[in-house]
Backbone:
DNA sequence: CCTCCCGTCAGCCGATCGGCTGATGCGAGG
DNA sequence: CCTCGCATCAGCCGATCGGCTGACGGGAGG
């Protein structure tokens, strides 16, 4: 059987990029561009109206609601959102995934990859650009669900009181050297390198009572 | 017209104190002691049954639920609670007020003051013993509601990312000296002296988005 | 007009931190 | 038995922090 074409909605604040994608996708008979949006608001409205199979979403959208918010709104309606953007920072990736993105491609990706990613996204399957995939894996290794040992949580608790190493050591009846050792491991696991950052992450993920 | 007598419930774990109050209040024709309780549980139960105009509550109640908890339960039913206790520590005062106390008197207070405070409490008006009042004022001036300036919140935001002073300075286009100045003031306002403590307090009171 | 608050900046100094390398003891699990 | 994870400890070093003192300009309000 000949499957129906995948209907997609482009969302990028740069007309040039949209035109480029349009031209690129024109060569694929099974991919049909159902519409284009230049802002997050527009994307949300058009997605609701057109009900495309996939929304190609840039994360940088200028003023108004950003790509992450748009992704959140659209994916909440059951439409697959494939993020196509320039940057691959951990923060961007994490926010996009948390917002419900089905895939995350970099614009530097080869066109063929984009096509297959679109077809995959239409079926709800995930495609990640290699750099993104490796970053996601790294997130998983320790950052996603940092498994702190009981002792490390003890130290973290004292740390969140704003205590210095000496005071933490006294409070837990260990040496300052041990406190430093634990702190180093905590930093590793939480992906930070300062006490302030550790406290921020701890509070964020509610690692402390 | 002759207003009805103010009906009050005494709550103190010392029978001697209750007797003293009873004797003291006996001289006031417009104040009627509707009942006495020796524990927090008793106070809550009797308050629900008797529906007095005012509950005279001691904060120290021995075992079981304490005065603060009793105050919380009773004031939740719309009955005015006038705390009458011996101590005037910031912690006690803050907890009692947070629990919904209408007034806070010290037992060292002159009897006349107690009478007028009871009449005031019956109408929902607040009376505070002078030492308590001044403590409350001090709480207000900076400690209770840490009013951080917009700029201080900027610095705090960066701090919560775990950044060092140099990076914060760069991010906000100011010098490290300025960052340090702001940090010092933030520490003062939040009652801490380390960045980790500042982040903890900030997260705790949701000072950051 | 003068004062107070806010934001900016400087320099100094001791205390603390964070990274690194390396070591010991102990219990669980293969 | 031997390895691995966890907790413990040591010393070194450069970087950073936190406290302190002092200063300046601008805006709000008395």
Residues:
């Amino acid at each position: 059987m000949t499957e129906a074409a995948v209907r997609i909605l482009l969302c990028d604040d740069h007309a040039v990029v949209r035109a480029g994608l349009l031209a690129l996708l024109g060569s694929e008979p099974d991919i049909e561009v159902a519409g284009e949006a230049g802002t997050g608001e527009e994307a949300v409205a058009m997605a609701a109206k057109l009900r495309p199979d996939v929304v190609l979403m840039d994360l940088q959208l200028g003023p108004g609601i950003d790509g992450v918010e748009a992704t959140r709104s659209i994916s909440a309606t059951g439409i697959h959102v494939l993020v196509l953007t320039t940057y691959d920072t951990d923060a961007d990736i994490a926010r996009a995934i948390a917002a419900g993105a089905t895939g995350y491609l970099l614009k530097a990706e080869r066109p063929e990859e984009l096509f297959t990613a679109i077809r995959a996204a239409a079926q709800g399957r995930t495609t990640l650009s290699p750099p993104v995939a490796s970053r996601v894996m790294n997130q998983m290794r320790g950052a996603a669900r940092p498994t702190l040992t009981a002792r490390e949580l003890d130290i973290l608790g004292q740390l969140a009181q704003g205590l210095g190493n000496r005071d933490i050591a006294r409070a837990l009846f260990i040496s300052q050297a041990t406190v430093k050792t634990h702190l180093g491991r905590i930093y590793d696991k939480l992906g930070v390198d300062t006490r302030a950052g550790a406290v921020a992450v701890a509070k964020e993920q509610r690692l402390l009572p």
